[in-house]
Amino acid sequence: xxxxxxxxxxxxxxxxxxxxxxxxxxxxxxxxxxxxxxxxxxxxxxxxxxxxxxxxxxxxxxxxxxxxxxxxxxxxxxxxxxxxxxxxxxxxxxxxxxxxxxxxxxxxxxxxxxxxxxxxxxxxxxxxxxxxxxxxxxxxxxxxxxxxxxxxxxxxxxxxxxxxxxxxxxxxxxxxxxxxxxxxxxxxxxxxxxxxxxxxxxxxxxxxxxxxxxxxxxxxxxxxxxxxxxxxxxxxxxxxxxxxxxxxxxxxxxxxxxxxxxxxxxxxxxxxxxxxxxxxxxxxxxxxxxxxxxxxxxxxxxxxxxxxxxxxxxxxxxxxxxxxxxxxxxxxxxxxxxxxxxxxxxxxxxxxxxxxxxxxxxxxxxxxxxxxxxxxxxxxxxxxxxxxxxxxxxxxxxxxxxxxxxxxxxxxxxxxxxx
Length: 419
Hints:
By secondary structure, the protein is of the alpha/beta class. It folds into 2 domains: about 1-130 and about 405-415, GSPII I/J protein-like (Pantoate--beta-alanine Ligase, Chain: A,domain 2, 2-Layer Sandwich), CATH 3.30.1300.30; about 135-400, no CATH class. Helix content is about 20%, strand content about 40%. It has a 23-stranded parallel sheet that branches.
């Protein structure tokens, strides 16, 4: 009996020891589990905080982008404030704009996302560009035949004739800012005259042959001039239209699109701006006219194919101001000998006149003798035939409707966030 009791006491002691070991193991495991859970929760919170901070940074970057866009469209750059921020997704922001120096603006954006925030500073410089700073410019070259002339005048000061007080006879001119240029070569043939600069591209040259004259500089441009693509507005077509001689066509302000558009001999078209007109082909027959009233806004023409001005035609605004009318030619009329295609036709015939700007980055434009352009011409290649005349309107260089404003980044940095 005593032996049995001793054995039972030994087994009880062993069970007690095992229970203690199990309890200790469970405690250690619980401690480890708690520690792991704590680490996991801490890591999750840190990751969540990091994500929120990153999203707050993205909100700031979006705020700066919105501020720059606002400035480019005439705003100051200030957007919202701390008491009334701008909502952005699940976050919000505000931007404070401060003029830093001439043409420099400092933008400070504060963004919030949940419990996090961020601040960024961006300094930008205002820059402006205007294609129409030339009397004539040819991307791939500019050629002036004998007796061709380019000079300048200021439309806001009156008619060209009233300012044509210099020189005599066929050499009479108004002002000397009728610059011509090219991204390649400029060639002036016998007796042609440029009252202004004649500037070739960086790797090009200006050839002044015989008694041709350039009143200004002929040094190469420091860099190539960009020829941006024309963006054509999407407008539903009204089909083809032929305007008869006896019945003028009157178009109120708005958007229009035609396929073949012809104004018959002696006919007339009157368009009130602001207006945008898109044509597949555009043809003014001899003696016809296309007149715009731009008192409420300019008129823009977009021509995909043929653009033909017959002799004695007139394209102008009621005030003969070149900034009132913009002609955009999409035609690519450069002949490729390897294929047979119907070439687009771009024709400016004798004794016709156009008051406006012409932009044709893919088009070779050959201006016939005695044609007069009052404004500016930018094309793929330009040929001014004998006795052709281009009178650059100096007002175009500063016309707000033709000037594109952009902002260049000068400095960008992260600022401490102040809750």
